[in-house]
Task: structure prediction
Amino acid sequence: MRIGVAAPLSGPFALLGQQLTDGAHIATTTASAGEAATPIIVDDKCSAEGGAEAAATFIKAGVRIVTGFLCTEALEAALPLLAEKNIPVVTPAIREAGLIERRAREPLPVFRLGLSQDREAAAVGDILADLWRDQPFAIVDDGTIRGREMAHAVRVRLEEKGLKPVLTETYRPGLDNQGALVALLRRAGASQVFIGGERDDATAIAAAATKLDYPLTIVGDEALRAAPGALTLAPGTLMIAPPEAETLPAAAPAVAALRSAERPAEGYAVPGYAMLQIAMQAVTAAETEKQPVFAMLRTRTFDTVLGAVRFDESGYRNGNPYRLFRYDGSRFVPMAE
Result:
């Protein structure tokens, strides 16, 4: 079977694309005989032009399914071309439907390993509701579309559960000194704050709270996993996010295979491996049952190095992988259930 793998292999995101293709390649070399596959790897250049060229290459090669795409522009350009040939796509990174996908008369055949932002916010809100049942809390955001929408959705989820913040505020991002925001939080009586913003802002808020001798627990989403900036993230900072793929118990075989091949088992490597597992299982089932691959993706549960994966009617992964982590001064560690 031929399986397409689209990834940015040139330009600023080439490292991520290489992680993805490493995982995909290793998955095919460790597959069982009944699931042997040939990956057709194409550089989508993280652009609309590259996405369209990749789709044309996949169609010409006769692939049954395509995996990958880390950039919305490339996926958006490729989807209509692939959909016309009934070739579904499984992507590990792009969570939200783009303009072309939203305007399509019929749902386009794309399946996502990540949750939509609405479901992410619901998962974050559910964890915070348990954590903050008797705590005065605030919700702040950095004014960006993502930060504002995340903060609003988390607030709505908490209010549905009967919890209301003592303060909601939009702050100015990128400041080294967030003393004015911290002063507002202290006056409001908040002991906890959820930040819809970036890691650097979380570090600046923590630094300002420490300077004012104000005990404040900061909680953020997976944006806190970004590379460290000039300031150090405060120990005790909390993050609500999925576990990193390579730390999952089910991922041990993929991690071992990647390391045996002297490839790093980080970033998109394990998701790339899982995508190929899904693709190979879907194509094998489609051939056995004489059904379209698309139908298999809609109805089956796939055994992968990410655990069991099943997609809902909208093409998103079922379940809630989000967990609570605490920063110990060097890394985020899972908190006890």
